[in-house]
Amino acid sequence: MTLGPSADQWAAAVAAVRSAGPDDEIQLICHVNPDGDALGSMLGFGLGLRRLGFTRVRATFPGDFVVPDPYREIPGVDLLVPESDAFAEPRLILVFDVASESRLGALAARVADAPASVVLDHHASNTGFGGVQLVDPRAAATSVVADGLLSRLGVPLDAEIAECLYIALATDTGSFKFDMTTVSVHELAARLIATGIRPGEISRRIFDSKPFGAMKLTGEVIGRAVLEPSAAAGRGMVWTYATLADLERHGQPPYVLDALIDPVRSVAEADVSMVVKQVAPGEWSVSLRSKGAVDVSGVAVSQGGGGHRLAAGFTGYGEASDVVDTVRRLLDEHLN
Ligand code: 5GP
Ligand code: MN
Asked: Superkingdom of this entry's organism (predicted)?
């Protein structure tokens, strides 16, 4: 899939939202272990629904109900409920930043059963689940798609909606550094900033603030990184891992590990970078990045995961070394 939503798909999404009455239950869902794009696009859209007069809007994500500290004060956070408090039989479901049903856990069945559902996403690996698909692989973030639907619904941007969409856009573009940081990305950022939001203050809160223990943990995990110059058919791979014991020793929640891929991917000698994060005994959440030579989403999809060409992930099993061995082998297979 390379093209964005068709005119018919946009019209169907608008019709799906308008098919709900002001007192109908509307459930918003984003992916497990939500990041800035998942939460920002979902809550920004949820605030937009409120502006349209919808009174019964809830937002949730599957699994442990942990809202990372940096997002505790994001506008619309009051829409968030644990999975157990999500509407059982909502009139309408909207799904944000979810490439496949596996990222919805037990909530996948609710999407399948809903009278109307709309999926807003930007992953090329999106599997096409749900009623109406608004999937644009060219979009830098799901919030670009959310902005497109909000404007078609006639919702004006205000500072609260804009802060949510800005957090999402800044998260998925690496603070406007990555390749998909196009003219239209900056045009959207300009429209968002024009509402009066403070990009500097938002960036400090979301990206540049962490507990001392998180910094110490980061130092330790980076300190054990391994560079394999001959991996990925000579393009090089750098990797590290973190265990539940590491988190416990430093008193840190799992989400602090998600930022670790950024220093690791900066290693000049490696095209491919990887962080293997333990989520349970024998189970690892794997983050993969490429500087351009390797389509890491191919590796991730072959392991039941997904993502983008240069940023992808999957769940691996066994020891951390088993996961590294698997990726090393798959990279060589993909490249030879
Ligand atoms: P991250 O490494 O930041 O967790 O994820 C990078 C990209 O890969 C994101 O676009 C994310 O949606 C995708 N991704 C990460 N883990 C998984 C996974 O287990 N399954 C799928 N389908 N996609 C994943
Ligand atoms: Mn995203």
From this structure: Bacteria
Give the span between the Cα atoms of 324 and 217, in whole angstroms.
21
Domain boundaries, the chain: 7-207, 212-335
The helix-helix angle for 36-51 and 142-152 (nearest 10°) equals 10
3-state secondary structure of 167: helix
33 Cα to the center of ligand 2, angstroms: 12
- pLDDT score of 1 more than 80: no
**Class of the domain covering 212-335:** alpha beta
Nearest ligand to the C-alpha atom of residue 169? 2
Quick: pLDDT tens for 48-62: 999 999 999 999 999
Degrees to nearest 5, angle at CA 182 with 167 and 311: 65
**Is a pLDDT exceeding 90 seen at residue 126?**
yes
CA of residue 230 to ligand 2 center, whole Å: 31
Protein residue closest via CA to atom 12 of ligand 1: 307
Taking CA atoms only, the protein residue closest to ligand 1 atom 7 is 312
From ligand 1's centre to the CA of 140, what distance in Å?
15
Give the residue, out of 30, 103, 265, with the most ligand 1 atoms within 8 A of its beta carbon, to mutate for a pocket test: 103
Among candidates 41, 23, 6, which has minimal Cα distance to 133? 6
What's the 119 CA to ligand 2 centre distance in angstroms?
Answer: 13
User: Tokens 């962080």, residue?
Assistant: 275
Please give the backbone phi and psi of residue 166, each rounded to the nearest 5 degrees, phi first. -65, -45
Please choose, from the candidates 226, 244, 259, the residue with its C-alpha nearest in 3D space to the C-alpha of residue 327: 226
The top-level CATH class assigned to 7-207 is alpha beta
Token pair for 309: 């060409």
Give the residues surrounding ligand 1 with Cβ less than 6 Å away.
99-100, 103, 123, 261, 287, 305-308, 311-315
Q: Per residue in 256-298, pLDDT tens?
A: 999 999 999 999 999 999 999 999 999 999 999 999 999 999 9
Rg (CA), the chain: 20
